[in-house]
Predict the 3D structure of the following.
Amino acid sequence: MSIEVNNINKRFGQFVALDNVSLNFPSGELTALLGPSGCGKTTLLRIIAGLEHTDTGQVLLDGDDASASHVRERQVGFVFQHYALFKHMTVFENIAFGLRVKSRATRPSEKEIQEKVHRLLDLVQLDWLHDRYPPQLSGGQRQRIALARALAADPRVLLLDEPFGALDAKVRKELRRWLRRLHDELHVTSIFVTHDQEEALEVADRVVLMNKGKVEQIGSPAEVYNHPASPFVYGFLGSVNIFEGNLHAGVFDLAGTRFDVAGHDDAQNAKGLAYVRPHDIDVTRYVTGQTGITAQLNRVHAIGPLAQLELQRTDSSEIIEVTLSSERYRELELKEGEIILARPSKLRVFADGAVK
Ligand SMILES: Nc1ncnc2c1ncn2[C@@H]1O[C@H](COP(=O)(O)OP(=O)(O)OP(=O)(O)O)[C@@H](O)[C@H]1O
């Protein structure tokens, strides 16, 4: 089922939680809603589910206005961070619960319930735990059971609100791969809320980046990571260095090095801010007369295939983060404390006024 939200506005008192949000969630895709705490992700999810009303705007499910339809009619499955499984029921009965409470006319037979629950337990690879009680499960197992329980009702949409938020890093990683595989099998339209950028980039078909109740960017994980549309997205997805420079007629001057930058032809001696990823900076030993940002090499952290360098500009106290391959770092034979030159190989410039 496809989901469309149009011009959604939502306030809590004076606080604007969602500011004119319009989005499309294509059928069968797994979309991540990503953004910092309080940006409105959960509110949007609850509005789609029908658990929260909008002030203005529309939710369309498969093209039909859902405003009048009750939560139950929307056929939405939920998994939350702390999903309350019934502690006094076995795993099997937890999953069967939604089927058993159906009205007599729609309730499956006992045989059908048995078959369906075992099928779901197979799907989440936990059939061997069917007669355990929730307190006898690990956190990761509990979330997989929660997902099986959400799937029991044959939802047309699956909404997951930080489903792995309470688990430790290693289990989170395993579970997000597992979720991706499960999604590839089932293809239920799914929306996944997270504030963890790595999780969103690894799991989702598409990422929606939100900030302060607004959508900042929508795209595939590669698009949003490689081509951030705004300074916020740059800063939120990975580390970034910000350099101030002069922007004039399509040229950005950074400490004497000039870069042609697209989209700024009209700029007249304006202040610009260049956003540069740590791996898009090269460094060389200092040579008089060569251009580049002069900096002192403060510290190096070289473990594994990458070397992380911390530099301090000599003309200000600003710190620059640089990532090199360990091989390149060894070739350079640099020493901590040495003065070196840093040169961005790729940058994206925003006029100062565009930076919020
Ligand atoms: N029922 C409510 N009453 C008042 N304010 C609310 C209510 N629900 C949410 N808010 C506020 O709306 C904003 C958005 O909340 P929301 O839960 O959607 O954020 P979020 O992006 O999911 O954040 P988190 O990652 O912390 O869960 C927050 O500032 C929150 O305090």
About this structure: The CA atoms of residues 4 and 24 lie 4 Å apart. The chain has a mean pLDDT of 90. Residues 3-228 form a domain with the Rossmann fold fold (CATH 3.40.50.300). The pocket of adenosine-5'-triphosphate is lined by residues 12, 15, 17, 35, 37-43, 195 (CB under 6 Å).
